[in-house]
Amino acid sequence: MICIPSTLIGVIVGAFAVRFIGVDLEKDSEYQRRVSDGILKNEKQTTYEISAKENQKALISVIIFLIGVLLIVIFGSIPSLRPSFVLTDGTSYRLGMTEIIEIVMMSIAGLMLIFTKTNVDKAVKGSVFIAGMQAVIAIFGIAWMGDTFFNGNIEFFKTHIEHIVTDYPFLFAIALFVMSILLFSQAATVRTLYPLGIALGIPPLALVAMFPAVNGYFFIPNYPTVVAAISFDRTGTTRIGKYVLNHSFQLPGFVATIVSIAVGYFLILFF
What we know:
The structure is a single chain. The chain is mainly α. Helices cover 65% and strands 2% of the residues. Helix 6 packs antiparallel against helix 11 and helix 8 runs antiparallel to helix 9. InterPro entries: Anaer_Dcu_memb_transpt (IPR004668).
């Protein structure tokens, strides 16, 4: 009853923080440039009428997608359902969730095409597909590059962060934030630093309140979902700035994280 309400409030405040940032599309120079160059059509001048048949296809796609999500949840909840293999050295290997998600969602995409009888030629020429493929390439390049660098130097970062936290325990939340930037994983950050926090005598409830700090991977715009969101935004208003770190997710990310931690502390102090 601490993390859920605190992060929910943090996300809401973060959304409000950027509600009035920027200008309307009619006044946005990048959007207008794309319209004038013919990269995209002016949305206000385009109307779409969806037929009953298209609505039915959309419903079928949603149902198939939800089935895929359900399968992933089941495979994640019951590991014994995932296929396992005996390797050449005699050890057993069970498929991880990464492989399961890839297999299931690729299969789901194929089933959508089959059951909705989608025109593949038109699908691959659509703006959404093109943006999606650009995001995939960007993810494979930027995210893997960052992951390779940090994983290759993780012991260096981990050792120095542990020394800082040991000397200054009140900086533990900041250490969580920094480590999450390096590890690209909430679970890995918790697994790495929370035992140290317990050893330092930080109250368990305080550690729970600090949990939102493990969401710092928005700081450097190389996390897959960040890269994908930028690529999917056809208007060009979601972007990486000139100095890389001044990107569209920085302000809402910091606001949501700080507010979530503050609300978490408030909850453990007064409830």
